[in-house]
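Please predict the structure of the following assembly.
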Amino acid sequence: MTTLIIVIGFLLYLILYFTYGKKLESGVVVASDDNEAPSKRLYDGVDYIAARKEVLFGHHFASIAGAAPIIGPALAICWGWVPGLLWVWFGNIFIGAVHDYLALMASVRYDGKSVQFVATDLIGKRTGTAFYWIVFFLLILVVAAFAAIVGNMFVKTPGIAMAYVLKIIAALILGVLLYRTKLNFALATIIGIAMLSAAIWFGYLKGIPASYNTWMWVFFFYIIIAAAIPVNILLQPRDYLNSWLLYAGLVLGFLAAVFAFRGFEIPAFSSFSPILLGGKPTPFWPAIPLIIACGSLSGFHSLVASGTTSKQLAKESDGLFIGYGAMFTEGFLSTIVIVSIAGFGYTALQNAGVTAEQLNFENWGAAFTKVSGGAKLAAANLFVQSYADMVNATWLTFIPTKIVKIIAGMWVASFAMTTLDTTNRLARYCLSEMALPLKDKATGLYNFLTNRWIASVIPAAIGIWLAASGNWLIIWGSFGAANQLIASIALMTGAAFAAKKLKSGFAGAAVIPAWLLWITVTCGILWFVIVVQPGAVAAKPGPGWTVMIILIVMLILNFIFFWDFIKSKAYKVE
Amino acid sequence: MGLLTFIKRILSDFDTSHRDSVSALTGVEVKELENIFALLLLGSFIGLPAPPSFLAVELMPFMERELKVLNRRAQDAGDMLAEMAGTIGID
Amino acid sequence: MKILFFTGKGGVGKSTMAAASAWQLSQKARVLIISLDPAHNLGDIFGVTIKNEKKKFTKTLFLGEVNLQKLSREYLEQETSVLSNTYSYLKTLNLDTYFSILKYSPGIEEYALLTSIEKTIRDEAGFDYVIFDTPPTGLTLRFLALPKVTITWIERLMQIRRQILEKRYTIHRIRGTLSSEETILDYREEDDDIMKRLKKLHDNYHTLDRTLRGSDCHVVLVFNPDVLSLRESERLVEGLRELGLPLRLLINNKVTEANQVMAEHVERRMKKAAGEVLLERIELSKTLLDGEKGTLYDIRERVIPDSW
C-alpha cells in the first residue's frame, strides 16, 4: 500500500504538471520567451542575474522546504489518511502550486518587484502595509510552534539534542574553514559532512537530558545571540550542513517508502470533525489549510518566489518548472510523510504502550490526538518513530533504528531551528516598518521599539513564552491561519494580476481558487476565534488572550483587505 | 543525452547550487557594503555629511559598479520584505 | 629646502613681510616666493607683473602667483572630461547638471590650493627657501586642516573597501570561475583601481602632512599693535595649535612710538597665547610715516632670523 500510494502520487503530480500546469502557463500567464525576463533586461550583476533553471530550482526548493511539510500531515492523521492526502495532492495542484506559480510570474512581469508591491499596485497601499503586520504575527507564531516541536523532540529523544548541539559546533568550525582559512570548497564540504556524521554518531551514543522548560530558556538565548552575529559565523555554514541532511533524509525516506510494501494500518477516513485543535471537533473544511501548510499551500512561498527567485529567472518558460514544480516536489515529500505514518504509526503507538481499547478504527477521530499526545508520540515524534520503523522494515534495516531516528529528528530539528533565528532577523525589520507611523507622533516609543535589542527580544520573548505555555496545537493552528492569510492575499493578488493585467481567457483557473481560498481561510479563522480559542483562554488566560488578540487583529486586517479588494475592482476580468 | 552525461550534469548543478548558496549571503553583504561605500562618497549630493567632494570626483571614474548598486538599492529600498525573506532562507 | 608660511589678517602687512624676507634671504640663497592670496599684492610690492607660474626677479629670487579660480576651473574640467567618457552610457545620471553644481561645492577651492602647494613643494626642490604668502585666515585654516581631515576619511573608506574586496575574494574562492556573462569583479588590492587610487591619495596626503609639521616647515604670524588684529591672531594661533602646525615666529608689524604701549600689551597677550615662540618687532618705516610711498627695501630689520 505504501508503495502504491507513492507511485500514484508521483504519477499524479507528473501528469498534472504536464497537463494542468502547461495550461496554466499558456492560458493564464501566457508565458512567452519573447518577453525578456528582468534578469536579462535589468541585468546589473547585483540582484538581477540569470540562473540556470536547475540551479534556481535547487535554491527555490531549499528556501521553501523545511519542517512544516512534515508536521502538518502528521497532525492531519486524525482524519484518517485519505483526507490529508487529498489536500496534499489536489489542494497543492489546484491552489497551492498555482499560488506559488502566479506569485512568481506576477513578480517577473513587474520587473522583479515583490508580491507585496504588486498588491499595493493592484489593490491598495493598506494591503501592502498589512503584509508587514501579518508577517510579523506569522513570525512570532512560527517561533512558538517550532520551538515547542523541537523542545518536545529533545525531551523525548535526548540523542537528537546532543546531535544538534554538536552540529552547531560543526557549523561554526565549517564557517571558519570556508570563510577565514579559505579552504578548498570540496574539501571543506567533506569535512563538514564528516563532522555531521560524527554528530549523529555521538547522539546515538549519548543524549543531553534536560527538561522542556530548560530547553525553552536555551532556545530564547540562542535566538537572541544567533540573530545578532554576522551571517558568516553561523547562519550560512549551518544552512549548508542542513542541505546535506535534507538529502540524506529524502533519499532514505524515498527508498524506504518505495520498498516498504506495507499495508496501511490506520483508517482511511475517521470522521469529518475529529478532535484536534483545542480539544474541539475540528471540521475538515475549513480547518485543513490551517493544519497542513507547506506541502500543500503556504503564503510564505509567495514572498520567497517574488523576493529573489523572480529576479533570477532566466526566461519565462522556466517559471513553471521552478514555481509550480518545486511546490509539487514538496507535496511529494508530504506524501512520503503520510505514507510512513499510515503504514507504521499505529504500531509505533502500540509499542509506546497504547492499547487497542484506547485507540482503534472506531474511535480514531475522537481519540487519536489525545492518545498520541499522551504517549508523547505526536506530530514530529510520531513522524520520527514511523520513519525509523519504515526504514527498519526494508532492506535498509542494517542501519540501527536509533541512528535513523536521530537523522529524522535532526532533519526536523535543523529546519525548525534555523527558522527560529532567521525569523527574528526578519521580525526586527517588520517591527521597524510597523512602527514607522509612530516616528513623529510618539518618538520615545518609536525609538524603544526600533532599538536593536528590544526589537530582537520582543518577538523572541513572545514566541518562546507561547511555546512554553504548552498549548502548542493552538499555536500550530494560528500559525497556519497567519500563513494562509498571506497565501489568500497573495493568491487574490495573483488572480487580480491574471484578470486585470493579463486579461487571459483561462483566468478562472486563478480566480476561482482565489475566492475559494479566501472564503475558506476567513471561515477557518472565524471558527477558530469563536469555537476553539475561548476554551484556550479559559485554560490559560495569558497565552490564550495573546493568541486571541493576534487572531482578531488578523481577522480585522483580512476584512479591510477584502474591502479594499472589492473597491479596487481588482477582481473584474476585463 | 547519454546517462553518464546526464549524471555529470546533475552533479555539476548540485555543485554550482551549493557553491552559490554558501556564498549567497556574503554576496548580499558585499552589495550592501558597496552601497554604503557609494553613499558615503557621494552623500554630500543628497545632504549627508560627506568627505570632501574632490574625493568623490577623484574616485568616480572607477565607481561604475558601486553606482549601479546605489541606484538599484535606492529604487528597491521600499520593497525589501520579500527579498530578505527569500535571501535569509526562512522555511 | 625650507618652507615658510606667512599668515595673518588681511592688511597687517603680511605680503610685505613675506616679500621682505624673500628679498633678504635671496642675498645668500635661492628663494621662491608664491602668493596664494587672491589680493595679489606680490606683483605690486616688487613692482612687476607676474603673469606666469614663476617670474625671475633676480638670479636668486623667483616670484609666483596662484590664480585660485583658474586653478579650480582647470581641475574640474580635467575630471569632467574623464567622467564624461567613462559614463557616457549611464543614462541614470544627468552629468551636466551634476558638474555645474560641483563648481560651487565646498572644498574644491581648498583642494585646488592644497594641490598647488603640494605640487610646488614637490617640483621646486631646487630652491633653498620656498615662501608662501597665504590667503586670509579662514581659508588658510581650512586648507591647512585638509590633509588631516582627508587622511581620516580616506582611511575609513579604505577600511570599507578592504572589507568589500575581502568578501569578494571569499565568494570567488567558493564559486570558482564565473560564467562568461558575469563581470569579473576585482578582489585583489593590486587590481582594484579604487583601492590603488585611495592608497596613492593617502600617501600623498601623508607626505604632505609630515612635511607641514616637520622641522623644515615654519609658520610665521604677522600682526599689528591693535586690538582687532590681536583677536584674529589669537584665533589663528589656536587653530594652528589644534592642527599641530609649527608656529615659529611672531611679527609685530607697524610699531611706532605712538602705539608703543599698545604694542607691548598686544605682544604680552600674543606671548601668552602662543607660548615659547620667537617674537620680533618691525617698525613702520620712516618713509611711510612721512606719508610717502614706501618700498620693501625700506625695511631695515632682519625679518627672518639667521638661525633658520
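Chain A has one domain: 2-567. Residues 2-567 of chain A form a domain with the Sodium/glucose cotransporter fold (CATH 1.20.1730).
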